[in-house]
Amino acid sequence: MIELVAGNPVQAFVQQVVSGLASGAVYASLALSLVLIYRAMDVANFAQGEMAMFSTFIAYALITGFHLPYLIAFALTIAISFGGGVLIERVVIRPFEGSSVLTLVIVTLALFSIVNGTAGLIWGYVFKTFDSPFQFGAVHFQGLYIGYQDLGIIGVTLVVLALVFVFFRYTKLGLAMRAASLYPEASRLLGVRTGWMLAFGWGISAAVGAVSGMMIAPVVFLDPGFMQPVLLFAFVGAVLGGIESPLGAVVGGVLVGVLLALLGTYVPGGENLRIAMGLVVIVAVLLIKPAGLFGRSEVRRV
Amino acid sequence: MALLELTDVHAGYGAIKALHGVSVSVEPGSIVAILGANGAGKTTTLRSISGMVKSAGRITFDGKEITNHKPEDIARRGIAHVPEGRGTLAQLTVWENLQMGAYVRRDRRRVKQDYDRVMEYFPWMGRRRDQVAALLSGGEQQMLAIGRALMMAPRLLLLDEPSLGLAPIVIREIFEIVGTISKEQDLTVLIVEQNANLALRAAQRAYVLEVGRVVLEGPAAELARHESVRKSYLGQ
Description:
By secondary structure, chain A is an all-alpha fold.
């Protein structure tokens, strides 16, 4: 890709930023799904990527097995993922309600293995291709080539993020979910069924994660491990933006995408440094500004 | 018939027992005060009513047993509990706090009426509806908690130490408003207070708790004249 525009350094730079925005959008949505659960239960869900992987396999099955049109498979997958997220919370997480953070972390790690193994059992470990819903080709603009694929990913992600924002900001249920996650006890006294609010949170988180999986799948190959690097970079994004801040997660995820694209272009052998770079960012953020770009260092009353 | 009836209620936190057989009866439309020193079991009494703490014994509301029901179910029956520390949803705005009060209600028209009424009691809320609750003063947060409770259209209001940490003039204002609301809306109020003076003036009936037991009960005016109450709680 770089050879195409290598003649003009500015164009080459912009080109890389745009393609970084597309992968960043994927990290952003998975980061957002992480943050949604983190805010509700103070636990990073290590199974988030695997859940998104499983969702993507469901979409794959609907498209290749049931021959559904992409759009219907997409919508159905989101609905199934929502239901699956709710179910996981009710069945797997709920018995550990009130347990220590460490216990819950181990539960999500177990969930990681279970979801991964189940996907392997059903669909095997052979790489599969997931067809892109977007046309092949690119928009030519000022000497730039912006793939429909990239534009599509950015567009879909923006729509999803906007919907999540509107839901939490302007609906009664969204308000109750925010209240329940921040102030569980006071919310119960107002009649809020906080247990269900948490389950819905898992559902929404799983649905948002599913979108990230379906968006990145055509770019990579489909196998039970394909979301693991994405989860790592989503984590980096979430930590960078502030693990308690949904807006921060989105901004952080996008920044990480752009950063990695530039790293691959301008640093010799940078492609192989991606994971190391991600970890460097995490360490740097935790050292310099642990609350992240958008997080507030919270003062807690004991 | 009493709206709320506690019969021989025991409750505690783990091995520590806070209530040793408390019986309290609250008549509809009245204000009842529970007085007592720190650690007498006042807050635990309220918490066992609203299901926030496990209890033994019998608690009935409107003739139906609610002992150990879930807090959210008890709230849905019409008991609004303003907890110690006011339960302010600090990161949410004034308006969002009030909306959360009406969370379980479906009757939009009535909710609007109640909202307007809350605005009459607390006109400042309308001007500051988009402000985050954390930025309010302690007195304002207490008023917001009461306003939010009214948005539930409750049949019983439980107030836990509404005077805590507030200036005397603000405390008086809050008690006045509670009295007005109870009268105007025929709302039953059970109020827990350390400030016995004000509580006895606002209430029709009162109980005195000591180490988890009711040691005195009767009409508020009578208790205010009672020798030991005057000594221990009114500082006279």
